[in-house]
Amino acid sequence: MSEGRSAHPHVWSVPEREVLASAVAAAPSVHNARPWTFVVREHVAELRPHPVDLLDEHDPLGRDRDLSLGAALTNLLLAVEHLGLVPRVDEVAEPGCERAITTVTATHRTEPSEAAERRFAALTHRRSHRGAFPGGRLTDAERASLRAAAGLAPGETRWITGASEALAVARSLSYAARVMHADAAYQRELAHWIVYEDAVGGPNPESGIPESALGWRGLPAVGLVTDRTKLPDEALLASRIEHDSVLVLCGEGDAAGDHVRIGRALQLVWLEATSRGMAASVMTQPLRLGEVRAAIAEELELPGKPHALMRFGHRS
Ligand SMILES: Cc1cc2nc3c(=O)[nH]c(=O)nc-3n(C[C@H](O)[C@H](O)[C@H](O)COP(=O)(O)O)c2cc1C
Protein backbone atom coordinates (compact mmCIF):
# COMPACT_ATOMS: atom_id res chain seq x y z
CA MET A 1 0.00 0.00 0.00
CA SER A 2 1.51 3.40 -0.97
CA GLU A 3 2.19 6.12 1.61
CA GLY A 4 -0.92 7.90 2.81
CA ARG A 5 -3.23 5.22 1.41
CA SER A 6 -5.81 3.77 3.74
CA ALA A 7 -8.21 0.91 3.27
CA HIS A 8 -10.87 2.92 5.05
CA PRO A 9 -12.72 5.76 3.41
CA HIS A 10 -11.95 9.18 4.86
CA VAL A 11 -14.62 10.52 7.23
CA TRP A 12 -15.31 14.20 6.50
CA SER A 13 -14.75 16.41 9.54
CA VAL A 14 -17.01 19.40 10.21
CA PRO A 15 -14.45 21.99 8.93
CA GLU A 16 -13.87 19.85 5.82
CA ARG A 17 -17.62 19.66 5.19
CA GLU A 18 -17.71 23.43 5.26
CA VAL A 19 -14.92 23.66 2.68
CA LEU A 20 -16.78 21.21 0.41
CA ALA A 21 -20.14 22.97 0.83
CA SER A 22 -18.68 26.44 0.16
CA ALA A 23 -16.98 25.17 -3.00
CA VAL A 24 -20.23 23.66 -4.32
CA ALA A 25 -22.16 26.83 -3.44
CA ALA A 26 -19.73 28.90 -5.55
CA ALA A 27 -20.47 26.91 -8.72
CA PRO A 28 -22.13 28.65 -11.67
CA SER A 29 -25.45 27.25 -12.80
CA VAL A 30 -28.15 27.92 -15.35
CA HIS A 31 -29.99 31.07 -14.15
CA ASN A 32 -28.10 30.54 -10.88
CA ALA A 33 -30.81 27.96 -10.13
CA ARG A 34 -28.39 25.53 -8.39
CA PRO A 35 -30.28 22.43 -9.51
CA TRP A 36 -28.73 20.15 -6.91
CA THR A 37 -28.86 19.25 -3.25
CA PHE A 38 -25.50 18.82 -1.58
CA VAL A 39 -25.32 16.46 1.40
CA VAL A 40 -22.31 15.07 3.31
CA ARG A 41 -22.75 11.90 5.39
CA GLU A 42 -19.79 10.45 7.25
CA HIS A 43 -17.48 9.48 4.37
CA VAL A 44 -19.73 10.29 1.40
CA ALA A 45 -20.34 13.68 -0.21
CA GLU A 46 -23.45 13.56 -2.43
CA LEU A 47 -24.56 15.78 -5.27
CA ARG A 48 -28.21 15.02 -5.94
CA PRO A 49 -30.02 16.42 -8.97
CA HIS A 50 -32.79 18.64 -7.62
CA PRO A 51 -35.95 19.51 -9.55
CA VAL A 52 -36.32 23.21 -10.35
CA ASP A 53 -39.56 24.95 -11.29
CA LEU A 54 -39.73 27.49 -14.07
CA LEU A 55 -36.95 26.11 -16.25
CA ASP A 56 -39.00 24.14 -18.76
CA GLU A 57 -39.00 26.88 -21.38
CA HIS A 58 -35.29 27.62 -21.10
CA ASP A 59 -34.07 24.09 -20.51
CA PRO A 60 -36.73 21.71 -21.84
CA LEU A 61 -34.41 18.69 -21.99
CA GLY A 62 -32.49 19.34 -18.75
CA ARG A 63 -29.19 19.78 -20.59
CA ASP A 64 -28.29 23.02 -18.80
CA ARG A 65 -29.15 21.46 -15.44
CA ASP A 66 -26.75 18.59 -16.13
CA LEU A 67 -24.04 20.97 -17.32
CA SER A 68 -24.57 22.85 -14.04
CA LEU A 69 -24.24 19.63 -12.03
CA GLY A 70 -20.96 18.99 -13.82
CA ALA A 71 -19.72 22.47 -12.91
CA ALA A 72 -20.64 21.88 -9.25
CA LEU A 73 -18.82 18.53 -9.36
CA THR A 74 -15.65 20.23 -10.58
CA ASN A 75 -15.80 22.61 -7.62
CA LEU A 76 -16.35 19.72 -5.24
CA LEU A 77 -13.42 17.73 -6.64
CA LEU A 78 -11.11 20.74 -6.43
CA ALA A 79 -12.11 21.20 -2.79
CA VAL A 80 -11.34 17.54 -2.03
CA GLU A 81 -7.93 17.88 -3.64
CA HIS A 82 -7.35 21.14 -1.76
CA LEU A 83 -7.95 19.20 1.46
CA GLY A 84 -5.10 16.89 0.43
CA LEU A 85 -7.26 13.95 -0.58
CA VAL A 86 -7.76 12.00 -3.81
CA PRO A 87 -11.45 11.99 -4.78
CA ARG A 88 -13.29 8.99 -6.14
CA VAL A 89 -16.49 9.66 -8.09
CA ASP A 90 -19.37 7.17 -8.42
CA GLU A 91 -22.78 7.37 -9.99
CA VAL A 92 -25.25 5.67 -7.68
CA ALA A 93 -28.77 4.73 -8.73
CA GLU A 94 -31.34 5.24 -6.00
CA PRO A 95 -34.59 3.28 -6.03
CA GLY A 96 -37.49 5.48 -7.08
CA CYS A 97 -35.21 8.24 -8.43
CA GLU A 98 -35.03 8.84 -12.14
CA ARG A 99 -31.53 10.27 -11.95
CA ALA A 100 -28.36 8.87 -10.42
CA ILE A 101 -26.71 10.53 -7.45
CA THR A 102 -23.07 11.51 -7.79
CA THR A 103 -21.08 10.47 -4.74
CA VAL A 104 -17.56 11.54 -3.87
CA THR A 105 -15.40 9.65 -1.39
CA ALA A 106 -11.67 9.71 -0.60
CA THR A 107 -9.39 6.93 0.55
CA HIS A 108 -5.90 8.33 0.39
CA ARG A 109 -3.91 11.52 0.79
CA THR A 110 -2.09 13.52 -1.84
CA GLU A 111 -0.37 16.86 -2.40
CA PRO A 112 -2.68 19.07 -4.45
CA SER A 113 -1.20 20.01 -7.83
CA GLU A 114 -0.25 23.62 -8.60
CA ALA A 115 -3.04 23.85 -11.21
CA ALA A 116 -5.65 22.45 -8.81
CA GLU A 117 -4.70 24.95 -6.10
CA ARG A 118 -4.71 27.87 -8.55
CA ARG A 119 -8.18 26.84 -9.78
CA PHE A 120 -9.42 26.28 -6.22
CA ALA A 121 -8.28 29.80 -5.32
CA ALA A 122 -10.31 31.11 -8.27
CA LEU A 123 -13.60 29.52 -7.09
CA THR A 124 -14.82 32.52 -5.14
CA HIS A 125 -13.90 35.26 -7.60
CA ARG A 126 -15.09 33.56 -10.80
CA ARG A 127 -18.10 35.50 -12.14
CA SER A 128 -20.03 35.81 -15.38
CA HIS A 129 -18.64 38.85 -17.17
CA ARG A 130 -21.20 39.91 -19.77
CA GLY A 131 -19.57 43.27 -20.41
CA ALA A 132 -17.07 44.27 -23.09
CA PHE A 133 -13.46 43.13 -23.22
CA PRO A 134 -11.51 46.35 -23.74
CA GLY A 135 -8.18 44.59 -23.08
CA GLY A 136 -6.27 42.87 -25.86
CA ARG A 137 -7.30 39.57 -27.39
CA LEU A 138 -6.27 36.29 -25.89
CA THR A 139 -2.77 35.19 -26.83
CA ASP A 140 -2.19 31.82 -28.45
CA ALA A 141 -0.67 30.63 -25.16
CA GLU A 142 -3.79 31.68 -23.24
CA ARG A 143 -6.04 29.91 -25.73
CA ALA A 144 -3.92 26.78 -25.50
CA SER A 145 -4.03 26.83 -21.68
CA LEU A 146 -7.84 27.00 -21.74
CA ARG A 147 -8.25 24.11 -24.15
CA ALA A 148 -5.80 22.04 -22.13
CA ALA A 149 -7.66 22.83 -18.89
CA ALA A 150 -10.87 21.36 -20.35
CA GLY A 151 -9.24 17.94 -20.44
CA LEU A 152 -11.52 16.93 -23.33
CA ALA A 153 -10.70 15.19 -26.60
CA PRO A 154 -9.20 17.61 -29.16
CA GLY A 155 -12.40 17.83 -31.26
CA GLU A 156 -14.57 18.63 -28.24
CA THR A 157 -13.22 22.15 -27.83
CA ARG A 158 -13.07 24.46 -30.82
CA TRP A 159 -12.30 28.20 -31.13
CA ILE A 160 -14.43 30.08 -33.65
CA THR A 161 -11.82 31.35 -36.06
CA GLY A 162 -11.85 33.79 -38.97
CA ALA A 163 -14.42 36.06 -40.58
CA SER A 164 -16.49 33.44 -42.36
CA GLU A 165 -16.97 31.26 -39.25
CA ALA A 166 -17.78 34.37 -37.21
CA LEU A 167 -20.40 35.47 -39.73
CA ALA A 168 -21.98 32.02 -39.95
CA VAL A 169 -22.27 31.77 -36.14
CA ALA A 170 -23.49 35.40 -35.94
CA ARG A 171 -26.34 34.50 -38.30
CA SER A 172 -27.38 31.58 -36.08
CA LEU A 173 -27.14 33.61 -32.87
CA SER A 174 -29.02 36.48 -34.40
CA TYR A 175 -31.80 34.14 -35.53
CA ALA A 176 -31.96 32.59 -32.02
CA ALA A 177 -32.11 36.04 -30.44
CA ARG A 178 -35.05 37.08 -32.61
CA VAL A 179 -36.95 33.87 -31.83
CA MET A 180 -36.32 34.17 -28.07
CA HIS A 181 -37.20 37.86 -28.04
CA ALA A 182 -40.57 37.18 -29.64
CA ASP A 183 -41.41 34.10 -27.54
CA ALA A 184 -43.87 35.35 -24.92
CA ALA A 185 -43.94 32.11 -22.88
CA TYR A 186 -40.14 31.99 -22.80
CA GLN A 187 -39.92 35.62 -21.72
CA ARG A 188 -42.53 35.15 -18.99
CA GLU A 189 -40.44 32.35 -17.52
CA LEU A 190 -37.15 34.25 -17.84
CA ALA A 191 -38.65 37.27 -16.05
CA HIS A 192 -38.89 35.13 -12.90
CA TRP A 193 -35.13 34.72 -12.94
CA ILE A 194 -34.12 38.34 -13.35
CA VAL A 195 -33.50 40.01 -10.00
CA TYR A 196 -34.17 43.73 -10.21
CA GLU A 197 -31.99 46.19 -8.32
CA ASP A 198 -34.67 47.23 -5.89
CA ALA A 199 -35.54 43.61 -5.05
CA VAL A 200 -34.61 42.07 -1.72
CA GLY A 201 -31.47 39.93 -1.86
CA GLY A 202 -28.72 42.36 -2.85
CA PRO A 203 -26.13 41.82 -5.57
CA ASN A 204 -25.60 38.08 -5.00
CA PRO A 205 -29.06 36.54 -4.83
CA GLU A 206 -29.54 32.90 -3.81
CA SER A 207 -30.89 32.21 -7.27
CA GLY A 208 -31.55 34.25 -10.39
CA ILE A 209 -29.45 36.80 -12.26
CA PRO A 210 -29.13 40.42 -11.09
CA GLU A 211 -30.36 42.79 -13.81
CA SER A 212 -27.05 44.67 -13.53
CA ALA A 213 -25.15 41.48 -14.51
CA LEU A 214 -26.96 41.11 -17.86
CA GLY A 215 -25.18 42.00 -21.10
CA TRP A 216 -26.86 44.71 -23.12
CA ARG A 217 -24.44 45.04 -26.03
CA GLY A 218 -22.58 42.89 -28.53
CA LEU A 219 -22.24 39.17 -28.09
CA PRO A 220 -23.40 38.81 -24.44
CA ALA A 221 -26.69 40.48 -25.43
CA VAL A 222 -27.56 37.46 -27.57
CA GLY A 223 -26.28 35.11 -24.87
CA LEU A 224 -29.28 35.88 -22.68
CA VAL A 225 -32.00 37.72 -24.56
CA THR A 226 -34.71 39.31 -22.43
CA ASP A 227 -37.69 41.23 -23.75
CA ARG A 228 -35.67 44.42 -23.12
CA THR A 229 -32.61 43.38 -25.12
CA LYS A 230 -31.85 45.55 -28.13
CA LEU A 231 -30.88 43.02 -30.77
CA PRO A 232 -27.51 43.69 -32.43
CA ASP A 233 -27.22 43.32 -36.21
CA GLU A 234 -25.39 40.38 -37.72
CA ALA A 235 -22.36 42.33 -38.97
CA LEU A 236 -21.76 43.81 -35.52
CA LEU A 237 -22.18 40.40 -33.91
CA ALA A 238 -19.73 38.83 -36.35
CA SER A 239 -17.11 41.47 -35.51
CA ARG A 240 -17.65 40.85 -31.76
CA ILE A 241 -17.25 37.10 -32.28
CA GLU A 242 -13.99 37.78 -34.07
CA HIS A 243 -12.79 40.11 -31.31
CA ASP A 244 -13.88 38.07 -28.29
CA SER A 245 -12.39 34.59 -28.13
CA VAL A 246 -15.34 32.21 -28.44
CA LEU A 247 -14.87 28.59 -27.50
CA VAL A 248 -17.39 25.92 -28.46
CA LEU A 249 -17.71 22.90 -26.17
CA CYS A 250 -19.20 19.96 -28.01
CA GLY A 251 -19.37 16.20 -27.89
CA GLU A 252 -20.64 13.25 -29.85
CA GLY A 253 -22.87 12.06 -27.03
CA ASP A 254 -25.98 13.97 -26.07
CA ALA A 255 -27.16 12.15 -22.94
CA ALA A 256 -27.22 13.33 -19.32
CA GLY A 257 -23.79 11.82 -18.54
CA ASP A 258 -22.28 13.59 -21.56
CA HIS A 259 -23.67 16.89 -20.34
CA VAL A 260 -22.29 16.40 -16.82
CA ARG A 261 -18.87 15.61 -18.33
CA ILE A 262 -18.95 18.74 -20.50
CA GLY A 263 -20.14 20.80 -17.51
CA ARG A 264 -17.11 19.62 -15.54
CA ALA A 265 -14.88 20.75 -18.39
CA LEU A 266 -16.70 24.07 -18.77
CA GLN A 267 -15.99 24.95 -15.15
CA LEU A 268 -12.35 23.83 -15.35
CA VAL A 269 -11.85 26.14 -18.32
CA TRP A 270 -13.64 29.00 -16.56
CA LEU A 271 -11.53 28.62 -13.41
CA GLU A 272 -8.34 28.34 -15.43
CA ALA A 273 -9.26 31.60 -17.19
CA THR A 274 -10.08 33.32 -13.89
CA SER A 275 -6.84 32.14 -12.32
CA ARG A 276 -4.90 33.61 -15.25
CA GLY A 277 -6.64 37.01 -15.15
CA MET A 278 -9.10 36.42 -18.00
CA ALA A 279 -12.85 36.99 -17.77
CA ALA A 280 -15.59 34.87 -19.33
CA SER A 281 -19.27 34.33 -19.85
CA VAL A 282 -21.24 31.29 -20.92
CA MET A 283 -23.95 31.15 -23.57
CA THR A 284 -26.31 28.21 -23.83
CA GLN A 285 -29.58 30.08 -24.41
CA PRO A 286 -29.26 30.06 -28.24
CA LEU A 287 -28.59 26.30 -28.20
CA ARG A 288 -32.01 25.68 -26.72
CA LEU A 289 -33.25 25.79 -30.32
CA GLY A 290 -32.52 22.49 -32.08
CA GLU A 291 -32.14 24.17 -35.45
CA VAL A 292 -29.48 26.52 -34.04
CA ARG A 293 -27.50 23.65 -32.53
CA ALA A 294 -27.68 21.78 -35.83
CA ALA A 295 -26.67 24.84 -37.87
CA ILE A 296 -23.65 25.64 -35.68
CA ALA A 297 -22.58 21.98 -35.74
CA GLU A 298 -22.76 22.01 -39.53
CA GLU A 299 -21.16 25.42 -40.05
CA LEU A 300 -18.18 24.55 -37.83
CA GLU A 301 -18.07 20.90 -38.90
CA LEU A 302 -18.18 19.81 -35.28
CA PRO A 303 -17.86 16.11 -34.41
CA GLY A 304 -21.09 16.37 -32.40
CA LYS A 305 -23.64 18.85 -31.12
CA PRO A 306 -22.51 22.06 -29.39
CA HIS A 307 -23.35 22.07 -25.66
CA ALA A 308 -22.10 25.52 -24.67
CA LEU A 309 -20.38 28.58 -26.06
CA MET A 310 -17.94 30.48 -23.86
CA ARG A 311 -16.52 33.92 -24.56
CA PHE A 312 -13.23 35.03 -23.05
CA GLY A 313 -11.25 38.22 -22.94
CA HIS A 314 -9.48 40.78 -20.81
CA ARG A 315 -11.45 43.34 -18.83
CA SER A 316 -8.63 45.90 -19.04
C1 LIG B 1 -24.88 25.40 -17.68
C2 LIG B 1 -24.89 26.89 -17.65
C3 LIG B 1 -25.58 27.60 -18.63
C4 LIG B 1 -25.57 29.00 -18.63
N1 LIG B 1 -26.20 29.66 -19.65
C5 LIG B 1 -26.11 31.00 -19.71
C6 LIG B 1 -26.66 31.71 -20.84
O1 LIG B 1 -27.21 31.12 -21.76
N2 LIG B 1 -26.52 33.05 -20.86
C7 LIG B 1 -25.89 33.74 -19.86
O2 LIG B 1 -25.78 34.96 -19.96
N3 LIG B 1 -25.37 33.09 -18.77
C8 LIG B 1 -25.46 31.75 -18.69
N4 LIG B 1 -24.91 31.08 -17.63
C9 LIG B 1 -24.30 31.81 -16.53
C10 LIG B 1 -25.21 31.81 -15.29
O3 LIG B 1 -26.33 32.66 -15.48
C11 LIG B 1 -24.37 32.26 -14.08
O4 LIG B 1 -23.33 31.35 -13.90
C12 LIG B 1 -25.18 32.33 -12.80
O5 LIG B 1 -26.18 33.32 -12.93
C13 LIG B 1 -24.30 32.66 -11.59
O6 LIG B 1 -23.64 33.89 -11.77
P1 LIG B 1 -22.05 33.98 -11.79
O7 LIG B 1 -21.56 33.16 -12.95
O8 LIG B 1 -21.74 35.45 -11.96
O9 LIG B 1 -21.55 33.43 -10.48
C14 LIG B 1 -24.90 29.70 -17.61
C15 LIG B 1 -24.21 28.98 -16.63
C16 LIG B 1 -24.19 27.59 -16.64
C17 LIG B 1 -23.42 26.84 -15.60
Task: Describe the protein.
α1 (14-25) packs antiparallel against α2 (63-82), α2 (63-82) crosses α3 and α5 (162-182) packs antiparallel against α10 (290-299). This protein folds into 2 domains: 14-122, 3-Layer(aba) Sandwich (NADH Oxidase), CATH 3.40.109.10; 140-313, 3-Layer(aba) Sandwich (NADH Oxidase). It is an alpha+beta fold and 316 residues long. A 4-stranded antiparallel β-sheet has the order 1-2-4-3, with helices on one face. It has a 4-stranded antiparallel β-sheet with strand order 5-8-10-9, with helices on both faces. It has helices spanning 14-25, 63-82, 114-122, 140-150, 162-182, 184-191, 218-221, 234-243, 256-275, 290-299; strands at residues 36-41, 44-49, 85-92, 101-109, 157-159, 194-195, 209-210, 245-251, 279-283, 305-313. The model has no long low-confidence stretch (mean pLDDT 93). Bound molecules: flavin mononucleotide. The site of flavin mononucleotide has 20 residues, from α2 and β9.
